Amino acid sequence: MRGQSCAIVGASGSGKSTLLNILGLLDQPSSGYFQFSGVNITNVTPNERARIRNQEIGFVFQSFNLLPRMQALDNVALPLLYRGYSRSLARQEAKYQLELVGLAGRIYHRPADLSGGQRQRVAIARALVGKPSLILADEPTGNLDSATARDIMALLLSLNREQGVTLVMVTHDEAIAKNMQRCLYVNGGRLSETDLWLDSLDA
């Protein structure tokens, strides 16, 4: 599914977030094994898992998870500093990503000075700055009004199409999930592909 967009849906407590954590190399499966880009993740060391996570995966969270005392520019640059980039190069790359998501005029603002939609754009820029092959998004529009949510979804899908980044998103919003190429349904820890929608699905 490289380069595709995929929604993960299911009732509360069904295991959606656990699945996303396994895909993001934050959790290990309780049984079986998991391959990432052909590598059996159950056989790699914690340091190797961290390296893959840092270089291959970008995370977008419902609550943004931005550092409140840092400007948007430095929030986005942070993953590159962890890779050993110089501060000037990391900020240069961060500035480019913020411009890409439409925040050229907000790069020196702190999260408290930004709207919810702007903060989520910062979070998306941070997820993209390391040029990952996979973006994992956990209810990225859950804290946004409907108009802003549509803008954020349009941005994520355009990045998926134009940059070829695989997008996997947990959502309970049928309208959002229908815009994705694939939809996976989690129920009782079991995973199946579906195009069916149930009114009883919740977050």
Automatic annotation (TrEMBL):
Q: Which domain of life is it from?
A: Bacteria
Give the GO molecular function terms. Answer: ATP binding; ATP hydrolysis activity; transmembrane transporter activity
UniProt-listed Pfam families: ABC_tran
Q: Does the keyword Transferase apply?
A: no
Keywords attached to this entry: ATP-binding, Nucleotide-binding, Transport
Q: Where is the ABC transporter domain?
A: 1-203
State if Membrane is listed as a keyword. no
What InterPro entries does the record point to? AAA+_ATPase, ABC_transporter-like_ATP-bd, ABC_transporter-like_CS, ABC_transpr_LolD-like, MacB-like_ATP-bd, P-loop_NTPase
- GO CC annotation, single: plasma membrane
Q: Which CDD domains match?
A: ABC_MJ0796_LolCDE_FtsE
Family per UniProt?
A: Belongs to the ABC transporter superfamily. Macrolide exporter (TC 3.A.1.122) family.
What PANTHER family does its record include? Answer: ABC TRANSPORTER ABCH.1, IMPORT ATP-BINDING PROTEIN
Query: What protein name applies here?
Result: Photorhabdus luminescens subsp. laumondii TTO1 complete genome segment 9/17
